[in-house]
Amino acid sequence: MNLEDKTNELFEQLREMISNQAEESRMIAVDLGELRYDEIFPVEQMLAKYKTENPEAKDLLLMMNHPPTIDFGRRPENNRFFDNSLQPYDDINPVVEKMKQKGIHFSLSQRPGGPVYLGPGQLVVHPVVNCYNANVKDMADGQHKLDLIMKEIVNYFGINDVKVKDPLATGDKRDIYMPPEALPADAELGHKIGSKIAAFTGLDPRTSVMYNGFTLFASNNSTYGFEHIPACGYEKEQLGVTSIQEVLEHRGSHYFTFEDAKKAAIPAVQKVFGYSSISPIIMLKGNEMEVPYNA
After folding, report:
1. pLDDT tens across 270-282, in order?
2. Full residue range of the structural domain in which residue 54 is found
């Protein structure tokens, strides 16, 4: 199945779900399993357009994981490797081959933002919501709410000194981070523990739909690809990258499961967006839907 057919099939599955008015919850949570970013982004664009035209459709909370991928978004001024010999805008093929040798797929996309590593061990959560339903006042508020959701999930594990960037500090790209004193590695601005980007269909919160979402670095293997790219454009000595599991192990706790992180996302989204209820997580496998557990 080619990418276009796969995109259309997944859109139709999700469109049918959010059009089901028999579902009592205002938001439906779906685990999509493993998808490449270039597979899910066009689906979300189609869903956002559909929800704009059909405001009665349910909101979605999409969970997924990505194969190891370094993606350069549509801000070329921030897109670069630490290895200056890798110049994808001159010739993408040598870059693709070099990353392939390291087990990482490389892509150029129209994703908002700059360079990012996506891969196993990351909690990837993409709300597709009517701004009015999620109490999102404007674009800046939507971005900030994604940071607050990540903070709630990290707090669930007893990590209460995690910080969220000031929403008014437009030059600060740390999103959510551990302060410099929290980890022994030397990094002037601390260690980033998650990343987010939100896209909107319009400027009016009464009719606009917000989509895309956040990536929380959960397990230790979730930060592997940041060895090759600057996190949010920062140099390594400025901003490090860490994970929930690494922080817990540094503090002497070895209790961490990825499933706990996934389950913690539901109450975090519900609290920050103000939903009265969210459906149990539905696992989508081909054309079959399973409900493996309640949040």
Report:
1. 999 999 999 999 9
2. 3-141+199-229+260-293
In this structure, are strands 59-65 and 27-34 parallel, antiparallel, or unpaired? parallel
Q: Are 174 and 238 in contact (CB under 8 A)?
A: no
0.70 exceeded by pTM: yes
Among 208, 203, 210, 215, smallest CA distance to 175 is for 215
Tens-place pLDDT, residues 35-93: 988 889 999 999 999 999 999 999 999 999 999 999 888 777 778 999 988 888 888 99
Strand order across the 115-118 sheet:
105-108, 69-72, 115-118
For residue 27, tell me if it sits in a domain: yes
In a domain, 157, yes or no: no
* Domain contains 106: yes
Residue 14 located in a structural domain: yes
Q: Can you tell me the distance from the alpha carbon of 80 to that of 74, in angstroms, rounded to the nearest whole number?
A: 12
Give how many domains the chain has, as a whole number. 1
